[in-house]
Amino acid sequence: MLHAMSNENKYEFIDTAQLLGEFCMLLESQPWIAVDTEFHRDQNYYPDLCLVQIGTPELSACIDPLKISDLTPLLNLFYDPNIVKVMHAGRQDLEIFYHLRGEVPQPIFDTQVAAPLLGLDEQMGYGALVKSLLNVDLDKSHSRADWMRRPMPEAQMRYALDDVVYLAQIYPKMLSQLQQLDRLGWLKNDFDTLTSVELYQNPPEKSWRRIRAANKLKPKQLSVLQALAGWREETAQKQNRPRNWVCKDDVLIDMSKLMPGDPTELSHIRGVGEGFSNRYGKTIIELISQAREKKPEALPETKFKQKLTASESALLDALSAIVGLCAEENKLHPSAIASRKNIEALFRGDPECELLHGWRKQIAGDKLNAFLSGRITLKIKEQRLILD
Questions:
Q1: CA distances from 179 to 81, 114, 184, 259, 290 (A)
Q2: Helix 167-180 crosses helix 154-165 at what angle (to 10 degrees)?
Q3: What integer is the mean pLDDT of 224-234?
Q4: Full set of structural domains in the chain with CATH
Q5: Pick from 134, 136, 159, 216: most CB atoms within 10 A?
Q6: pLDDT digits (tens, 9 = 90+) for 155-173
Q7: Closest by alpha carbon to 68, among 16, 22, 136?
Q8: Is 366:355 a contact under the CB 8 Å cutoff?
């Protein structure tokens, strides 16, 4: 059933396969759609998709995946290469679709990523963006709502729809401004990164890198941690449980340091309960026994960074000043171009540094490298810092 909204946009709550198919047919010829999702993942490894919102300037809908078992028409729409999927801070939304189909929808446009190129704040929240571009204050009363609840209250559904109703008004404005500034192409590298499959994969063998204390372990202990973290990740995925529900990071570290040789020793480690020991003890002991004889995977090079000298810190200050000049020239906030951490990465020669790719390289990275090689210098002219 369609309901009239004050801005003449129409919306619908879709909870049957027939309605979903009809709605998706209406959108097949659209050049773009605004997309958002609501989900829960507090008790699971993978997010539980609770609601999908889609919007255009004329029509919006809440789609109920809890009632519709076959979302094929919706996924076909999302994976249509001729339709731009417009999102705000869309990484988690894209992760959901990746797990549903094993690939990431393309092409996409993320308004949070694009906002700094228009002189807006980096990592800008959706409410702040709507206020800035449309002068609308969004209702926040349902920000902690239970999205599994059915029937869904009308006010909660309207709250969810706001995310795409206003997004469908924001996108044309942002697109026009970016085109006028000739900056739309600047976003390609960022959007390519967001739609990279590797971003949403969690290979168990790499999961140890999330554990901060890994760089404090000796080689044999690190090898054990790598094996245990991989086991935990694989177990969490198979059981669809949060990884820390299987075993917490600090317990993995203690097991890696102490390397228990039998279930009794394992049970004496703080945080290892009897239930855990009975269920996983034999597997853990075997993993430890095997891993302690293996050479560990090397720590990422960034773990070995030396503390900056006073001279190097001064040089980073100069590089930061150049970023500030580039920001002023392009009417951007310096933080949109590079953080201090990004600048240090360039200084240390990190090939993955953001300043060496895309639009950041174009407006700042090349100048920073020219300064480091002595091809340009900083000087003061008429009480202003300039690049010479």
A1: 21, 12, 6, 59, 58
A2: 10
A3: 98
A4: 3-200 (3.30.420.10), 204-291 (1.10.150.80), 305-387 (1.10.150.80)
A5: 159
A6: 999 999 999 999 999 999 9
A7: 16
A8: no
